[in-house]
Each structure stands twice: as C-alpha cells, then as structure tokens.
Amino acid sequence: MIRLVGVELHRLRARRIVVLALVASALIAGFALFTVNQQAVQLERARSGADAAFQEQLRWWEENGERERASCLQSQEEERRLSGDASVDFGCDQMQAPTPEQMYGAMPSLAGQYDELLLALAYPFLLLALLVGSTHVAAEFTHRTMGSWLTFVPRRGVVFAAKVVAAAIVALPVTGVGVSLVLLGVPAVFRWHGIDGGGTADQWVVLAWAVVRIMVLGALAGALGAAAGFLVRHSAVVVGVLLGYLAVVEGILGASLPQASRYLLGRNIQGFVENGTRWTVYADCWGPTGECREVVERLSFAQSATTLILVVLLVVGLALWRFLRTDVD
C-alpha cells in the first residue's frame, strides 16, 4: 500500500494540473495581498490629503454639512411632534465630517486580517485541491489507462485507496502554498506601511489552529475529488456537479431558506475553519409592524466536522462500491 501511494505521488508530480494548481493558489493569495496593500495605500493617501475622491467629500461636508444636520434635526423634531413619540431618532448626531476609515474601511489588526483572509480564501484553495484529485483519477478513465494499471495491481480496493490517499497528500502543498503566502505577506504589507499589527497570544493560538483546520480541509477536499473522479469518471462532470450544487443549493436554497443554511457545505466549512460560527437570520418579516425579528443561529465545530466527514465518507463509499462492482472501460 505504501509503495503504491509513493507511485501515485510520483505520477501526480508529473501531471501539469498540480503545477497549475500551485500557481493558481499562489496567484489567489497574491491578489488577496494586493487588496490589503491597496486598502493601506488608499488610507495613507486620504490621511495625507492626496486622495481626490476623499477630498471632494470633505469639501462637500464643509460647505453643506451643518445645513444638512440642521435639516435632519428639524425633520426629527417635526416627526416627534406629529407622532407624540419623543424617542424618534433620525441619527442626526451621527452626521459628521467623513473620515478615511468610513470611505475605505479601517485596517484590522494583524490577527483580524488573517481571520478575514483565511476564511475567504479557504474556499478557492479547497476547490483547487478537489480539482487536482478529481482530474488525476478521471484522466485514468478518459485515457483508458485504469485497466492497464489493474493488470499490474489487480486488487481494486488497494488501487482505490492509494489514489485517494495520494490525492489527499498532494492537496496539502496546493493549500499550503496559498496559506503560507498569506501568513508571510500580510505582516510584510503591515510593516511596509508602518501599521501596528497588534494581536494577543491567545489570538495567535486561535490563528494557528485555524491554519491546521484549513490544511485538514484541504486533504479532505483532495480525497473527495479523487473519490468523485472514481464515481463519475470525468473531471468535467465533477466540475458541473459542483457548479450546479453551488448555484442551486448554496445559492438559491440558501437564500430562500436561511434557516436551512446550517446543513449546507459552505456554512459547515465556515464552522470548521472558525471552530464554530454564528450568523443572524431575520424571521417574521410579514407581521403587522413590518419589522423583522433577528434570530442568532449557531453552528458548533463538532456539528460542522461531523457533517463534512459524513459527506466525504458517503462519496468515498459510493465511489468504492462503483469501482469494485462495475467495469473499468
């Protein structure tokens, strides 16, 4: 078994898809770092007075701000008088001169920046790992080399396990390249612009475990992709099924039934990476007052891990059953 996994890893290294996935992972991380750098540049320009768009908003406020606030206060007093409710608040006190942070967003701490980027980038990294695994196996069926391979190793179960394990192992560097570039690039951007990263020891421990969980997800995605390749035997079908799931289930069903999102893969991946997650849904929006009721939903790490592992085991089990029971060619 170990020898077969080594052979599969050697074959995977020779495939162009692995190199392309590594390059894509690096490009995705590079683009994310570029956006972080651009936000820091825009904030610096706005603070120094070199940003034309911000200066235009600031000039408009200097000319019209007090008048707009006075008009707001007048409308607020009129509404209070007509309704008899002294608690009516139009938010006039929050009307003030614009700040660079309001226009371009405040730079989070170093740990906060990591949290935002790693969660957002986990999804494309996992997609790349899945594509590497599925393409490697599906190519065997497309080029009709699986039958030849079984003449050398006639034990289908062992061949199946070797290919799935090899795909999971190769998924680690595919995911790790992007994660490593983010981990190294964000502090470089902060230091270049003289931003104090901050962060406590507890935050760094949480971040380290988040990185470990992302790497585990990468390995699971690689194994899932290989199993999907065995199941449908064509990489284009794997991609089509994935896109259909994202569009119909994650997109349409997730938007129309927000209470069901705890059972979707996207939410469970988030819960796994964040060690449990929470989000807000709005219920009873058709009541007599027209006001929605906020409901905080919570998803534990244990439930997320269980859901993801069950999905992987289900696909792997179906793929193994088909590979053992049906003809290769």
TrEMBL record:
UniProt entry tagged with the keyword Transmembrane: yes
Keyword terms: Membrane, Transmembrane, Transmembrane helix
Protein name listed in UniProt: ABC transporter permease
Residue ranges of the TM segments: 17-36, 117-139, 160-186, 206-230, 237-257, 305-324
Organism: Serinicoccus chungangensis
